[in-house]
Design a protein that fits this description.
Layout: H1 5-16, H2 20-31, H3 34-50, H4 61-82, H5 89-97, H6 109-117, H7 121-128, H8 131-142, H9 147-154, H10 158-182
Length: 190
Amino acid sequence: MSYESKDKKRVFNEEFMPHIDAMYNFAFRLTLDEDDAKDLVQETFMKAYRFINSFETGTNAKAWLFRILKNSFINNYRKKSKQPNKVDYQEVETFYNSDSVNENITTDLRVETVQHLIGDEITNALNSLDVDFRTVIILCDLEGFTYEEMAKILDIPIGTVRSRLHRARNLLKEKLKQYASSLGYKDKRK
C-alpha cells in the first residue's frame, strides 16, 4: 500500500501519535535514561514515518511501533556494547580542579538524584531485571499487550513469551520478597 503525502501525515497523526506517551514510558524502562529514551522514541517515529507504507491501516499501530522501538533499542544496545567506554579526562580534570567543587561529591549523582524521586521498590526491582525479562513484564503487565502481540513485537514464539514472562515474574517476586515482608506480608508457602 502506498500513501500520498497527505495520507501519510493523517495516518501518522491519527494512528501513531496517540501512542507517544506509551512509547516514551517503554523506552525509558528499557534505557533507564531520559535522554536515551527521548532519542529512542524520536528514532522510532522517524522510522515509522519512513516505512509508513508497510503499515496496514486499521491494524494495531501501538504493537507496530513497539516492535520498531524494541528493534531500535536492541540495535543501539549491540552497537554500544561493542564500543569501549569513553571518558573525557580533560573534562573530569577541569571539573575537579575548579573552585566550586565540593570534596564530598564523589557518589554517583544519578543514584542520588533518582533516590529522592523513586522510593519505589517495585520500580527498582523491575529495573534491576535483565532487559529480556524487564521487557516482557512491561509489555504484558504495564502496557497490556496479549501474548500474540508480544510474540510479534519481540519476534519470538508464544511459548517463549509465556515462559519468559513466568520466569520474569518469579524473579521480580524474589527481588520483592524482603520488601513485602517489611510491610508485614508473610510467605504462605512456609
